[in-house]
Structures are given as structure tokens and as C-alpha cells.
Write a structure and sequence with these properties.
By secondary structure, the protein is an alpha/beta fold. It is built from ten helices and twelve strands.
Amino acid sequence: MNGQPDIEYFRGDWPAQKTYTFAYPPALFRLESGKSLGPVTVAYETYGTLAPDGKNAIYIPHALTGTAHAGTFTDRPEQEQGWWHGLIGPGKVFDTERYFIVCSNVLGGCYGTTGPASLNPDTGVPFAMDFPVITIRDMVRGQKYLLEHLGVKRLVTVAGGSMGGMQALEWAVTFPEMVDSVIAIAASERLTPLAIAYNQAGRKAIMNDAEWCRGNYYGRTYPVGGLALARMIGTITYKSKETFEERFGRKLAGKEHDVYNFFQDFEVERYLNYQGSKLVKRFDANSYLYLTKAMDLHDLSRGYPSPAEVLRRIVGPVLLVGISSDLLYPPGEIRGLAVELRRCGVETDYRELQSTFGHDAFLIEYDQLATHIDEFLKKRA
């Protein structure tokens, strides 16, 4: 599978349906690590119209392999639907006739925003592993430059799931004066050791691929097998036991079943192989390394005297949404964060999606999500 010429793989051509870019800031961007990066290009999409006072905006940060294409443009019905199309649009919970919705590709990504595949201005070749380590906090600070560029003065809410939920919580801590409320779904203030372990297994799958070449594979072969395996590992964590049982059971793949053929796959194996090959076509392996590392490093309280002090920085109400079958962010962990927020004087609602879809439910259970989000936003309208 590695480096085979007939394998279609990602070459950096992000979907540019109606995506815009801008560069920030005029000087080098200083990262949390102390290193500097710049100029930084950000790819973003907007839906709806910004109010004259700049205060009707909602920022939607995306998850690990997401893009800026969160919604669907009403004047482009043939366009591929965005990853949260069920929530963004006219008359939907994030109503584009009322709100100005913004979503951008994260720093370190591979869909138009500066990342490991971008050209290093000092060398003229892609950064690869010379790209500096970035954090969720770095992403959020970069997003603020974008919103200032667009004329946004305040945010009605910041709403996201998984890595997007991490960014939402970071927004509330880093820029509390700009955020009226926060909606964090399937996310908490830091990753569990189990989730870090899964991410490390995925990174090792990529780095152990002979075609990875310490990240210097641009213009050469590509670590197809390693990235595909990383995605397979991730996919297992995004689902639930119930999903695998209901969807696949122990069914064998194909029409001719030979149980004594070593290469006879079960349907679940075929599904994992499909998910791996699908990501290879649309994502950069080095971005996968950097973004999972950013998730591992994320800790809301880093740099503050105590966890309580950092939570007290949040001034707007918070909606935390857990998922009953989530392996990566167990609902008990998110309920615990809700308790800590209330102890720190933060108005906090906790809701739970009842779903067998596991962590992926935040991309599937639109009806339940819309109900919880709508109730939360209407209470504060």
C-alpha cells in the first residue's frame, strides 16, 4: 500500500467552494511555545450577514480532520454539504438569517491555513517537521485575528464538538470579554490518558511508515499505509460497541465466504479499511501528527495558578453536552466539569445525547443537538 502510484492521496488541494483567505498579523505570530511563525494564512468561510454593531456573530471551530466548510451556501445547492449542515442555515438553530456564522481551518491544518505542508519562508520548501508545535490556545488566538479582520466585536456563542469543543472552552478562558456564551460538545478541559494513548498509537502508525521520511515526503511518495492505519485506530475510538454490533456483527465481507482464507475480511474490517483509505485522499499526514499533539497538550489551566482560577475567568454561560456512549470523552467526565464550573460561579447547563453512535454522535444527532442548543440560546436571547 505504501507509495504505490495507483493510490490516490492528498496533495494539498483543499475544497475551495467559497473559501476565503487572509494573512495575519503584520508581524510574526508568537506561539505559546515561545517560537514565532509568520506570515500565517487562514482559510475561512462565513454564512449570513454581520450586523452593523458587529455583535451577532457565532464562531464554529472544527474537529480534528474538519475544514472551514461547516455549513452549506444557499446559492450553491449542488455543493457538498458542510460537516454541520444540519445545524447551520436559514431557520436552523444557527440561523443564518439572524446570525453571522464564521468557521476557519485551524492553525496546523491542511485546508488552506498555514500548517506543516506550507512553504517555510526561510527555506522555500514545506515546513514538514520544522513546523513549530502548536496548541489549542494558539489556534484560538489566531482565530481572534480573523474575527477582528471581519469586523466582529462580540460573539453570541462559540460552539464546537471534540477538538472544536476544546477551542470553544479556550475561547471562554482566553477572551472572556468577547464571548457571550460557550457550547462545548463531547469535549472537556483536557484529554484523558486513554485518549492520549490512542492518539500516540495513531502517530506511531504514521511515523513508522517507511514513506514518512521524518515528514519530508512532499513531492515524493506518501505515508499512505501509516495515515490509513492511524485513521483506523481513530475510527475505533469514535464509535461504540453498540454501533459495531448493530451495523456489522460478525458478518463476513463479499459474496463468497471462505472462513479458512486468511485474507477473508469481516464487514467491520472492510469498513475500517475504507475509512483509512478515505482519509488518505483528503488529509495531510503531518497535520494529523501536529493536531493530535495539540489535543494531547491542551489543558485549560496551563499557565494559571489553579484550575479554579482559570474557570473563574469564564463570564458567560456554558452549555456542556456529553454523549452517552462516548469512549473518548465519557459523559461522567463532562458532568464533572459542569460541577466544577458551577462551584466557580459559572452558569452551566449539562445535557446528554442519548446515542449509540459514540463520539461521532456530535456529527450525526442533529435533532437532539438542535433541541439542546436552541433551548440554551433562547434562555439568553
